[in-house]
Amino acid sequence: MKWRLNIGPMHSSPAISKDGTIYIGTDAGRLYAICPNGTIHWWISLGSGWAFSSPAIDNNGTIYCAVSDSYRLAAVNPNGTIKWYFYAQSYIYCDPAIGEDGTIIIGSNDGNLYALNPNGTLRWRFYGGGPKGIGTYSIADDGTIYAGGTEGYLYALRPNGTLKWEVSTGWIGGSTPAIADDGTIYVGDQDFHRLYSIAPNGTINWFYKTADDIISSPLIDAKGTIYCGSWDNNLYAINKNGTLRWIFTAADEGIDSSAVIADDGTIYISGLFAGTSSTPDYAYLFALGSMNDTQPITPSITGDQNGHVRRTYDYTIVSTDPDNDTLSYYIDWGDGKTTNWTTPTPSGQPITKSHTWLIRGSYDVKVKARDEHLRESDWGTLHVTMPCQPPRFPILHWLLDHFPNAFPLLRRLLDGPPRFMLR
Predict the structure, then answer these.
(1) What is the pLDDT of residue 405?
(2) Is 295 a member of any domain?
(3) Taking residues 94-113, what's their average pLDDT?
(4) How far is Cα 331 from Cα 249, in angstroms, rounded to an integer?
(5) Which residue spans within 141-217 are E strands per DSSP?
(6) Which of 46-60, 126-140, 272-286, 342-356 tops mean pLDDT?
(7) Is residue 82 domain-shared with residue 101, that is, in the same domain?
(8) 281 and 179 belong to one structural domain
């Protein structure tokens, strides 16, 4: 421990200025400025209620922090004097955000998202509806503001406050939208327990469903993997295509904190745990190391590529894993039927699966491999054509069905023309 300082209960997160000063709000409605050595530089009362909001600092050193019951956002000079107040019409629990042009964005329980000029005057406001209004928001590099509403929508607003698009997601109460380098937006909801991937034009690319509310804000690493905690006690690592990479259980009472990642790839996440009748609830902070896991090699699939319908064919599937992990396989037979993930087998060990096509046509058989860490390979494919359909003679087929070992020559004739190999 370097130092510790007791300034009372707090829900705010600290913000650090360029000179190292730490700013944080407390549940008593105070904003503290703390020196890097742990001594209090100054504190100021912002009004009644919690300073639940986490401070934001602009390029000039002005600190912005809201206080709940007073319905106001304060702009505070670095010396601890009040610069101005902006009043909303209801509680403010949200964190202020600052755009590249100095615009300050703040949401309120009155249902509005406010954009303020650096002097505290109103630039515009957007009504998101609902008794709790706008929950979270982020500002993209192009100035687009992505705001999560408690009425069940993610809004995309132009820098002038007009609506660009909206998409139905479910209640976004605590998950702040994360924006990837390609403009994709990731956000979680509390109604349907989903992590969404949303394209910059507002279409949903995919969603991944967890077992409980998502309050945690997503984190995106340099490779595009998305990390998000859920109230179902798990931290999820999701690939860019929406498939699960891995799960880490970090709680038994839920996760509402957001993950952070260090330069060396270490992931930090905290989770809540239930105490006993004699001990209080507690939390752990976890540091997760990189597995350096690589995906399996694209599987190969071999077998007959031409045949007859209503005849069963065997296909051999094999892949290898660079980490020598065990592998399971998923098969799409191309006719609407699939074989779900098979029992894990050693890397490089072939498996054989059978299939029967019932309708003449051409089919693309696709197979992918998944290792024990849930890393998935690319699809391997095999093109199959089933052009021939054996003739049907109801009486004869009834005989053959009831006497399977009789009439071998007749059975071959009814199964269709023989296949020859030219040598």
Answers:
(1) 63
(2) no
(3) 89
(4) 29
(5) 145-149, 153-157, 163-168, 178-179, 185-188, 194-198, 204-209
(6) 342-356
(7) yes
(8) yes
